[in-house]
Amino acid sequence: MKKLFWLSVCAAACAANGEVKLASVFGDKMVLQRGTAVRVWGTADAGESVTVTFGGASATAVANEKGKWRAELPSMSASKEGRTLKAQGKSNAVECHDVLVGEVWFVCGQSNTELPLWGANPHFRDAYGAMTAQTMRKSAVRFAYTSNYRWSVEPKDNFDKQVVWKEFTKENLMGNSSFSAMGVYYALELYSALDIPVAVIGSYWGGTRVEPWTPKCGFEAVPACQAEASAKIYTLEETKASDKAPYHKGAHQQPTVLWNEQVAPWCPYAIKGFIWYQGCSNASQPDHYADLMHALYRGWAKQFENPNLKLYFVQLAPWGFDKIALIQEAQAKFDAEEPNAGMAVINDYGNLSDIHPNQKFVVGKRLALHALKRDYGFSDIVDNSPTLKSWKVEGNQFKLTFNDAKGWFVYNPDWNVQTGFEIAGADGKFVPAKLENLEVKKQQGYRSNGIMKGSELILSADGVAEPKKLRYLYSRPWYGCVYNEVGLPLGAFHIDADAAK
User: Fold this and answer.
1) Is residue 379 included in any domain, yes or no?
2) Cβ proximity of 287 and 182 under 8 Å
3) How far is 280 from 272, CA to CA, in rounded Å?
4) Domain match, 51 and 130 both
5) Domain of 473?
6) Backbone angles phi, psi at 59, to 5 degrees
7) Same domain for 28 and 144?
8) Within a 10 A sphere around the Cβ of 174, how many other Cβ atoms?
9) What does the alpha-carbon distance between residue 488 and residue 458 come to, in Å, rounded to a whole number?
10) Which one of 19, 284, 318, 401 is least enclosed by Cβ atoms within 10 Å?
């Protein structure tokens, strides 16, 4: 009898191990990406046939010798109707309920991404988070959070715990269960404009560099990143045994290790793209940062199996770093080089006393402008901050033309028209520059409303008869105050007339 009992226990255990399972990212209340093949995967007995059904469509896959299977559902239209996704095997079935179809975006980066809509620390939460969250009743907007503050030497194909999908409600966005404020505002902007389900998936970690969020194949695809591609990745035991093992003040900063742990298990979930806010921890190496961003993008696009994956990211805001313009220009360089990327300039919302500016609504809004114009048919909007198109020197003036600027204005809270432009002559000494094409109003209390004539910027500097160099936002306080006609700020840049010859 005992023998029969243990045989039955073993048989039951084997049957349980062979059950059809979905990967941990699939769960109740998830959102599937519309307009593309939807990849669904999991485990079963080797050779077992698994049929996935959803919304009247079905797809069948066979588990390989390792018990892994993957099926592809056909492209679907957006739907707010909660339906059931089912994976059926020979002896069991698993289901995910209240599944919607819409737009899915990943949210990633360091602490400015991590800054929550609401939390216990007044200096690390969104300024308007409580007001936003307490009236939230949007069941068609959802989020999943998978930051576990761990890292891995090798890519993982599953999370240790089931991913929990949640709706945008007061209960889910207040307190300890909150989400990235940047991600929340981005999702709300898309939902407001599109009126279809939107989901944001979050993995972020304060103080992290770009390298650990990048898969190895991304480094391999960029010639300037071969050192990162071939870097030895130390295990936790090795980091404890050797003072040479920790990488950039922490083993979790090694190339690939956060991707391996916190993002890889999502692949190849169908997503439209990802939004990114990071750079502070790489600010000391502006000459290499654009290369690293290319590696990040190429790696994500390959691993998510989406060659048209979009990357909309945030240029660093001003803070207490004397060479902030250098990393800002590196970010702008990547933006100019990658067609599927878009950069949100937020230099008008920095805080020199706090690396975490807390008005993330502006961040989400400016990121969403890129998506709305480039992905969702709002072709008549302006989504880009101005970028330098051409320049010339005439007499003692620089005359500049820009992309994405039909008009200009200057805004400072105290009505002054100082702008952060500087000009240098042959001696290389920079002095503050002034805008020659400001409309001046001779009224008591102020001398200009900040409106400029024409689409050019015309600048000169007292005492500089033959200008050779021009730069913008290279000196404290680095705040942007020059805007195009739709209120998008001009980013940092520089011109060297002699170098251009």
Assistant:
1) no
2) no
3) 26
4) no
5) 387-500
6) -150, 145
7) no
8) 19
9) 19
10) 284
Check residue 464 and report its DSSP letter. -
Q: Tens digit of pLDDT for each residue in 247-301?
A: 656 899 999 999 999 999 999 999 999 999 999 999 999 999 999 999 999 999 9
Same domain, 201 and 291: yes
The first and second tokens of residue 123, run together, are 């200096």
Tens digits of per-residue pLDDT, 72-128? 999 999 999 999 999 999 999 999 999 999 999 999 999 999 999 999 999 999 999
Give the integer Cα–Cα distance in Å for 283 and 62. 48
Q: How far is Cα of residue 38 from the mean position of the Cα atoms in its chain?
A: 22
Could you say which DSSP state residue 177 is in?
G
Question: Scanning the structure block, which residue is given the tokens 């010859």?
Answer: 501
Centre a 10 Å sphere on the Cβ of residue 218 and count the other Cβ atoms it contains. 28
Residue pLDDT, tens place only, 200-248: 999 999 999 999 999 999 999 999 999 999 999 998 888 776 666 556 5
Contact predicate 330/289, CB 8 Å: yes
Structure tokens at 182: 């940047």
CA distance 158 to 24: 6
CA-to-CA distance for 273 and 204, rounded, in angstroms?
16
Whether residues 84 and 156 fall in one domain: no
398, 423 Cβ separation under 8 angstroms: yes
3-state secondary structure 202-215: EEECCCCCCHHHCC
Based on the structure, what is the number of domains in the chain? 3
CA atoms within 13 A on the CB side of 422: 17
Query: 214 and 115 share a domain?
Result: yes
Residue 471: name the closest of 454, 488, 492 by CA.
492
DSSP 8-state class, residue 377: S
Both tokens of 48, joined, read 């077992």
Domain presence at residue 7: no
* Residue at which a domain ends, from 314, 340, 374: 374
Q: Are the C-beta atoms of 317 and 347 separated by less than 8 Å?
A: yes
Please indicate, yes or no, whether residues 330 and 211 belong to a single structural domain of this protein: yes
- Which token pair is 34? 């519309």
Please tell me whether residues 96 and 110 are part of one structural domain: no
Burial of 277 (0-12, 13-18, 19+ CB in 10 A): buried
In terms of domains, do 183 and 96 share one? no
DSSP 417-461: ---SEEEE-TT--EEE-EETTEEEEEETTEEEEEEESSSSEEEE-
Q: Which residues contact 277 (CB under 8 A, 6 or more apart)?
A: 109, 110, 112, 113, 182, 313, 314, 363
Q: Which of 317, 347, 374 is the last residue of a domain?
A: 374
At 78, which CATH number?
Answer: 2.60.40.10
Sign of CA dihedral 293, 296, 298, 301: negative
